[in-house]
């Protein structure tokens, strides 16, 4: 087998990192595809990856999830076709938690950013629904949201009182 020293390591890994970060709704699936291509695919480079190389690819998974979770926390995206909602956001956080636990990656800073995104989202969403009569874009139950809040470390007391009224079946 060739090592990455025999091929252009930077170019190969840069390409795979971009593919993982932008490869779709489940970044770890793309990660496993990249690993296969780099190491086992008969048409691939047959590389032996170092721990640093593996870490770059794993961090690309985290970045991929950060991007799609952030996308669904941006109120500007609520009316766009790319928007998947808070239910998908919570599911993606769960997937990322499983991956990061298995790979021993720290999500604390990302959890803090998600908390801030949730606070911004609900402040705008509550205002839009109550003040302007806009239909709520919240697509999951209060239980799903409370579970999500707990996993990222958000105290729902930090949200506007009316947040729970925006969930399906409770919309104002």
Jot down its keywords.
172 residues; mainly alpha; 6 helices; 60% helix; 0% strand; elongated
Rg value: 19 Å
Straight-line distance between termini: 63 Å
* DSSP summary: helix tally: 6
What is the string of SSEs from the N terminus onward?
HHHHHH
- pLDDT average, as an integer? 92
Structural class computed from helices and strand pairing = mainly alpha
Percentage of residues in helical conformation: 55-70%
**What overall form do the CA principal axes indicate?**
elongated
Beta-strand segment tally: 0
- Show unreliable segments: 1-6
The main pleated sheet reads as:
none
Share of β-strand residues: under 5%
Characterize the structure shown.
By secondary structure, this protein is mainly alpha-helical. It has helices at residues 9-21, 27-39, 51-73, 85-103, 108-132, 142-152.
Task: Set down the secondary structure blueprint.
Blueprint: H1 9-21, H2 27-39, H3 51-73, H4 85-103, H5 108-132, H6 142-152
Helix pairs in contact: 1-2, 1-3, 2-3, 3-4, 3-5, 4-6
Concise structural overview:
This protein is an all-alpha fold.
């Amino acid at each position: 087998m060739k090592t990455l020293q025999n091929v252009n390591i930077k170019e190969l890994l840069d390409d795979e990192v971009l593919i993982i970060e932008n490869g779709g709704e489940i970044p770890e699936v793309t990660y496993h595809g990249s690993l296969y291509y780099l190491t086992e695919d008969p048409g691939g480079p047959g590389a032996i990856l170092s721990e640093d190389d593996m870490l770059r690819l794993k961090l690309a998974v985290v970045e991929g999830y950060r991007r799609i979770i952030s996308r669904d926390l941006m109120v500007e995206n609520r009316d766009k076709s790319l928007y998947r909602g808070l239910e998908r956001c919570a599911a993606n956080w769960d997937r990322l938690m499983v991956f990061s636990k298995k790979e021993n990656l720290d999500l604390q800073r990302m959890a803090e950013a998600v908390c801030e995104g949730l606070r911004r989202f609900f402040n705008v969403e509550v205002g839009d629904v109550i003040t302007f009569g806009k239909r709520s874009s919240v697509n999951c139950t209060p239980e799903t949201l409370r579970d999500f809040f707990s996993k990222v470390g958000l105290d729902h007391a930090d949200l506007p009182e009316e947040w729970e009224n925006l969930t399906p079946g409770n919309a104002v």
